[in-house]
């Protein structure tokens, strides 16, 4: 006698649960990779602001741009892909400008340009915040 759950054999049900678990884990891992990449970008950003040597600043900015380009290929939360990539492109353009300013010897200008990135970060991170309790209840 086979055990059935809502008319479905337990072997089939176990298989479906296993497949669902794999898909869920894969989706979580991709989001986790993006999270790690963003944390690395944040760390490089702080190192850039603190760096005393212009060569170090340029190197850190290049590394950030590389990570941002990689991040653009990630899968973002549903409905935010276009806006997220747009935000990453804005950050890349600000970093490129700051890098050019450093190479031209305009250190003070580059510092103020780099500070604009924090505003962009705050603006675009709002897209990925989970909804509040009240938003869940009242839409």
TrEMBL record:
The species this protein belongs to is: Pseudoalteromonas phenolica
Q: Which Pfam families match?
A: Cytochrom_B562
- InterPro entries, alphabetically? Cyt_b562, Cyt_c/b562
**Which keywords accompany this UniProt record?**
Signal
Q: What cellular-component terms does GO give this entry?
A: periplasmic space
The superkingdom of the source organism is Bacteria
Range of residues in the leader sequence: none
UniProt family annotation: Belongs to the cytochrome b562 family.
Question: Does the record's keyword annotation contain Heme?
Answer: no
A molecular function (GO) held by this record is: heme binding
Q: What protein am I looking at?
A: Cytochrome b562
Annotated GO biological processes are:
electron transport chain
- Specify whether Signal is a keyword of the entry: yes
């Amino acid at each position: 006698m086979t055990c059935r759950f809502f008319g479905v054999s337990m072997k089939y049900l176990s298989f479906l649960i296993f497949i669902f678990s794999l898909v869920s884990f894969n989706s979580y891992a991709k989001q986790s990779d993006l999270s790690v990449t963003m944390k690395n970008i944040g760390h490089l950003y702080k190192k850039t602001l603190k760096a005393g040597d212009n060569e170090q600043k340029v190197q850190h900015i290049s590394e950030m741009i590389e990570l941002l380009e990689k991040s653009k290929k990630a899968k973002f939360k549903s409905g935010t892909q276009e806006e997220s990539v747009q935000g990453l492109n804005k950050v890349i353009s600000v970093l490129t400008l700051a890098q050019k300013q450093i190479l031209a010897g305009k250190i003070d200008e580059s510092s103020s340009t780099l500070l604009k990135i924090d505003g962009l970060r705050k603006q675009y991170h709002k897209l990925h915040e989970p909804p509040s309790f009240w938003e869940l209840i009242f839409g």
